[in-house]
Amino acid sequence: MIIEFSKELEKQDFYANGKELASIMGLDKDEAGKRVYEYPDDKRVHVATLEKPVLVTDIYRITQLEPTQRDTVFKLFESSVRHTIYDGVSIDFEQEKYPGVWGPSIDTVAFCLGLSRLDLSKIKNAIEIGAGSGFISKYLLEKLPNLKSMDLVDLNQRAEECWKDNINDPRAHFYIEDGALYMESRKTDLLICNPPYIPRPRSIDDNAYEGIGLMRFLISGAKKTLSDSGILVINYSSLSEKEAMEAISESGMTMETLVKMEVPLKVCNVLNNSEWVNYLLQRGMQSKNQNGYQYWHNIFIVALRRT
């Protein structure tokens, strides 16, 4: 299955590719009538388009498609490998192969959109903390020919497996360790992180979406970490905006908002916990029945620089 986003995130296209063309799209005979079981992975057929996507897997809006399109897209989601493309950059992601690692989400591609709006032509070295699938780092490697080194850092050993499967670039260096310890003796021109941003009392800070400790740590230490003209690109949610603004103010850095996007909260671990939901409602989460989802918040991709 291929999911491709347009540059400004105006649309999201779904394609069948490879073996799916015979097993799902009915292309199971060649011109001579001979049985065809599979095609090369780079051969694809367009299935459907969603306008103005707010999720990678938008179940509700997929159900609004014409019935054959709807059923075909759902069948494609059963494929073991998901091929995600944004701005010409792609990775193959197989969840069962990399347990505990998150594949590209809507904030991943929004983060890349934010990076594309910066002049990064003078950046020589970059670090990504909590690199996950590695998509954002791969985006930088492919878009910045003058980049000399790209360090990917994560706690999960399976993340490194995903990087090795998708990134074949001698400028990329892989580190499986605690990001805070890794940053103790580093300086960089560009520090990027798509951190957890959903606050929770007594949060479990190694959860991929829960907590705000990493965000605050990176912002507070940015001046020490960045070169004189360095940039920190990070995201936060309207649910954690108060803490983000406090940390930015204390850091003395200037902020530029690159992307602001309203998205639904679609994390079942949160939604099925009434105490957690009530806590987020008190922090400004919007409860409104909109486009098939009840709870909404904004995500922000921002760039921080020295004053």
Q: What is the structure about, briefly put?
A:
With 307 residues, the chain is α/β, with parallel strands linked by helices.
Verbal overview:
With 307 residues, the chain is an alpha/beta fold. It is built from twelve helices and 13 strands. It has helices at 20-23, 59-63, 67-76, 106-116, 135-143, 157-166, 179-183, 213-220, 222-225, 241-251, 268-271, 274-282, and strands spanning 2-5, 11-17, 44-51, 82-86, 89-93, 125-129, 149-154, 172-176, 188-193, 226-237, 254-264, 286-290, 293-305. The strands form two sheets. Strands 6, 7, 8, 9, 10, 11, 12 and 13 form an eight-stranded mixed beta sheet that branches. The protein has a five-stranded mixed beta sheet with strand order 3-2-1-4-5. A hairpin with a 2-residue loop joins strand 4 (82-86) and strand 5 (89-93). Helix 4 packs parallel to helix 5 and helix 8 packs parallel to helix 10. The radius of gyration is 20 Å and the shape is globular. The model has no long low-confidence stretch (mean pLDDT 95).
Strand residues, percent: 25-35%
First-residue to last-residue Cα separation: 45 Å
Encode the helix/strand succession as letters: EEHEHHEEHEHEHEHEHHEHEHHEE
Helix proportion:
25-40%
Q: Largest sheet at a glance?
A: 8 strands, mixed
Average pLDDT reading = 95
Overall 3D geometry?
A: globular
The count of helical stretches stands at: 12
State the total count of DSSP E strands.
13
Contiguous low-pLDDT stretches (5 residues minimum) are none
Structural class: alpha/beta
